[in-house]
Design brief:
By secondary structure, the protein is of the alpha/beta class. The protein contains 17 helices and 25 strands. The mean pLDDT is 93.
Length: 503
């Protein structure tokens, strides 16, 4: 089943209902949404895009993003959404690795030439493409690729997670079962990037005929969210924990109780218990937590609205720091070192299998075989399941830093810094941050004759990696702590980084 069929059905049933909004202004009904996406799909075919071909989307949130995404699916092509914050070098690597033939961008992108061209969604060429004759939704199997989700690991280079139409359908139906029923009249507010979790939730909101609100602000603006929720509510959204913290602070300062906000789904990073308690105290029962990975998008576990709000249970504090129970379409287990499933209370690697689990990584059979074993997705996260099925994350076995809800991979930052002549060795870790979840801290061993120049290192990073990946703090050390095998002891560095951040 092509996931774009949901748009076709909603347009047929509720064609005059508002679909796409920029701020509080309606820019398209469902009938117009489907017509323009179909026209763009026709234009893609005329540009030589065949079923299974990859099309990149490298832009910030806007109504045109959803039109382009659905056009790709109508044409049975594969969307390659790219984080708009990435450096052009990083985005170009993803475009090359995916073999994308065409890219939709929002202005100057810095991408190289593509056979199908680079199309600015705010330009005349894009508007002309929308006017091409409408296209029927091309049929495809549930295991056909729909989305290449580029994630990464401690090896540095991103990996393309193969997300199929069937995975998107299973994830969406799990959302309705385990997260939120999406009552009639709901609006989906896109505060987080559409290239990630927020965009993955678009299909289920299309299925339910929700309005899709793109904020006017280029970056997350709690004031705009509060205002638009009053004007356009009831609204539902996906936020990173740091966004929840900022929203709570702004709402309290304004005396706003979040009128119009119906549901806030949070995930993508650690949520401090004090933060969610304060948010619930202020806003009320509006929150649901999810835990997922690109490899099993948004659909491993969910901590329900009731579990987050109800403080009458004797173990409510323990449950509040958990990530909830397995979602409907998956099975969750804890594996020991030998791969055997551990009983309740055992601590080990979190394993998941079920309909939303990826079929593998794009052109990377070795990584696929290492990550999916006998149908089980080996998450690389360490956790514990209690007797009631609540999963608590103990630690991340990978050294990923999550800042502002975005994964940052130390190897990428380290490689950028090592290309500067003053850096002989470097190791990057995360330090707890009340504002961002984690801040990036770089421990630098300087080359002989050099002194630590943080301004020069930050400027150097700007030419190599995205701005948000730059370290917030640099610390010069005579040597990095290492074990007998020469491996850097990041546990010690994290302790040092926390002390530096506290100071």
């Amino acid at each position: 089943m092509n996931i774009a069929l949901w748009l076709e059905r909603t347009a047929a049933k509720s064609g005059d209902e508002p679909a796409l909004l920029l701020g509080d202004a309606v820019v398209g009904s469902y009938r117009a949404f489907f017509r323009e996406a179909g026209g763009l799909a026709t234009a893609l075919r005329e540009a030589g895009i065949e079923p299974g071909d990859r099309v990149a989307l490298f832009m910030k949130n806007c109504p045109q993003y959803l039109i382009a995404l659905y056009a790709v699916w109508i044409a049975a092509a594969v969307a390659v959404p790219i984080n708009a914050k990435l450096h052009p070098k990083e985005a170009s690597w993803i475009v090359d690795d995916s073999g994308a033939k065409l890219a939709f961008v929002d202005g100057k992108s810095g991408l190289g030439e593509l056979s199908g061209g680079i199309v600015d969604v705010h330009g005349a060429a894009f508007r002309q493409m929308l006017e091409a004759g409408p296209a029927a939704v091309r049929s495809c199997r549930p295991d056909a690729l729909a989305w290449l989700f580029y994630t990464s690991g401690t090896t540095g280079r991103p990996k393309g997670v193969e997300i199929t139409h069937g995975m998107l359908a299973a994830m969406s139906l799990s959302y309705l079962s385990d997260v939120d029923a999406i009552p009639e009249g709901t609006a989906a507010y896109y505060a987080a990037p559409m290239s990630h979790g927020a965009g993955l939730y678009a299909p289920v909101h299309v299925l339910r005929g929700a309005r899709h609100i793109c904020p006017k602000a280029a970056n997350f603006d709690p004031d705009e969210l509060l205002d638009l929720s009053v004007a356009c509510g009831p609204t539902s959204m996906f936020l990173a924990p740091t966004m929840v913290r900022r929203l709570t602070d702004v709402a309290r300062a304004r005396g706003s109780r979040g009128d119009g906000i119906a549901t806030i789904v949070y995930g993508g990073g650690p949520m401090y218990r004090a933060d969610i308690e304060e948010a619930v105290d202020w806003f009320g029962p509006k929150f649901v937590q999810i835990y997922g990975q690109g490899e099993c998008p948004m659909s491993i576990t969910a901590l329900s609205r009731a579990d987050i709000t109800d403080r009458s249970h004797r173990r409510w504090r323990e449950r509040l720091v958990s990530v909830g129970r397995a979602q409907s379409a998956v099975e969750v287990a804890i594996g020991g070192e030998d791969g055997t499933v551990l009983p309740a209370g055992g601590v080990g690697e979190i394993m998941v299998r079920g309909l939303p689990v990826m079929r593998g990584y794009w052109n990377n059979p070795e990584a696929s075989a290492a990550t999916v074993r006998d149908g089980w997705l080996m998450t690389g996260d360490v956790g514990m399941l209690d007797a009631d099925g609540y999963l608590t994350l103990q630690d991340r076995s990978k050294d990923v830093i999550i800042s502002g809800g975005t994964n940052i991979y130390p190897r990428e930052v380290e490689e950028a810094l090592l290309s500067h002549p003053s850096v002989r060795e470097v190791s990057v870790v995360g330090a707890p941050s009340a504002e961002w979840g984690e801040d990036i801290v770089a421990f630098v061993v300087l080359a002989p004759g050099h002194t630590l120049d943080t301004a020069a290192l930050s400027e150097h990073c700007l030419g190599e990696i995205a701005r948000f990946k730059r370290p917030k703090l640099y610390h010069a050390v005579a040597e990095l702590p290492k074990n007998n095998y020469g491996k850097v002891l990041k546990t010690e560095l994290r302790t040092m980084a926390k002390a530096l951040a506290d100071a």
